[in-house]
Amino acid sequence: xxxxxxxxxxxxxxxxxxxxxxxxxxxxAPADEKKxxxxxxxxxxxxxxxxxxxxxxxxMDVTPxxxxxxxxxxxxxxxxxxxxxxxxxxxxxxxxxxxxRA
Length: 102
Fold this sequence. Notes:
single chain, alpha+beta, Glutaconate Coenzyme A-transferase, 4-stranded mixed β-sheet, two-stranded antiparallel sheet, 2 helices, 11% helix
């Protein structure tokens, strides 16, 4: 906890959604569960400590105004990222794809 509270910059790397458990035979497929929420439902290590979130779909900066979409994974649209994110994302203009270097 002290490491997070004293850090100048905290970057969280995570999967964007929790994969749904397989449905029973004949039942509709369950939706993936959003992991980026408006409010945390788990105990916090530190309050307002995260500066950037990097997921398999996007890079987002945590600002006082909300989450700003910085980059998106290749082939992933802004609409897809928003549909898998509970808070409304701040999108300033065209959001570039993450540049993958060989």
